[in-house]
Amino acid sequence: MPGADGPLPGLLWLPDHSSSEAPVPGLVVFQEIFGLSDYVRSRCKDLATLGYAVLAPQVYARLDPPVESLEDDADDLLGTAMGLVGQLDWDLAVRDGLAARDALAALPEVLADQVGLVGFCFGGGLAFNVAAAAARAQVPPAALVSFYGSALPNLLGLAEDVRCPSLHVFGTQDTYLPMETVEQIREAVTGGGTREEVRFELHEGAGHAFDNPNPMFHHEAASRAAWAQTQDFLADVLPTRRGSGVT
């Protein structure tokens, strides 16, 4: 796909009916700190099964050397992932996110004005920043889903620009984003509770990255509930025919 500083690799999933039927809504999915992992890919497939065209840019492909993803059994998984994030040019990643949105919207299989953003962990904050930048560029996203966006505390000044329907999910036992910080995020993104287009969900007992199936992070009940909330939210604000598979 075209990127801010030249081509950037990405993975595309299409609903199995998209080649023979009318265009469908699209979702750009932003990876967690572990890269475009099997977990993130599985969520992309889940979204495509719901009937969305899904594009996942490989953000770490800009690093030297490029990195696609880290394996769950990698030595010092968290430390290595944090090192990768530290090498990343955030502003370039935002511009690449905008380019990914534009690339997905330009596909004939996609409804150009119905492209949303989804992000997990690192990607949850990146999706929020891309949503703000897209709004400023007069191409606001149709929806935003942010799972425990780790960069959000540093991005709250952008909240006024993120006016699309949004869903934010967090765990109440997140040691990376303690509840005091989560409540600050809630206050900013909901406009003190005045913005009805923003849904904010807390999951009791869940820690950071609770949707990731790695036993280090996973909270089964929270993961199941948050994914159901995600499906309900998208069905309400970005509806599509439900697909039965991907190509």
UniProtKB/TrEMBL annotation:
Keywords, in A-Z order: Hydrolase
Family matches, as InterPro entries: AB_hydrolase_fold (IPR029058), Dienelactn_hydro (IPR002925), Dienelactone_hydrolase-like (IPR051049)
Span of domain Dienelactone hydrolase: 20-237
Gene3D superfamilies xrefs: alpha/beta hydrolase
Entry annotated with the keyword Hydrolase: yes
PANTHER family listed in its UniProt record: ALPHA_BETA-HYDROLASES SUPERFAMILY PROTEIN (PTHR46623:SF6), CARBOXYMETHYLENEBUTENOLIDASE-RELATED (PTHR46623)
Protein name: Dienelactone hydrolase family protein
UniProt organism field: Ornithinimicrobium avium
